[in-house]
Amino acid sequence: MCLVCLCDEEERELGRQVAPGSCPHCGGKVEALDVESRWSFCFLTICFKIKRKYTCTLCSRRLLLYY
Question: For residue 29, which of 5, 1, 63, 3 has the smallest C-alpha distance?
Fold first, then answer.
């Protein structure tokens, strides 16, 4: 008998906003993306998170926020 384990990560964009500040690499505008992510195991949702990711509109680099 063959046992198949199905693990899946699904990300969906919820919205985009203009964020304050500028990109340290090229000086372009910063954009904030709200992303919903789901981890599933055998079609059952294990983890559900909503994250905010920052990117530059000119060079498309992902920016990290340090506190």
Answer: 63
Query: Rounded to two decimals, what is the model's pTM?
Result: 0.71
Q: How many CB atoms lie within 10 A of CB 28?
A: 15
The 3-state DSSP class for residue 9 equals strand
Provide the token pair at 64.
Answer: 């990290």
Q: What is the pLDDT of residues 30-62, one digit of tens each?
A: 999 999 998 887 778 888 899 999 999 999 999
Q: Alpha-carbon distance 16 to 3, whole Å?
A: 41
DSSP secondary structure, 10-44, as one string? EEEEEEEEEEEEE-TTT--EEEEEEEEEEEEETTE
For the chain, state the CA radius of gyration: 17
**β-bridge partners, 34:** 15, 52
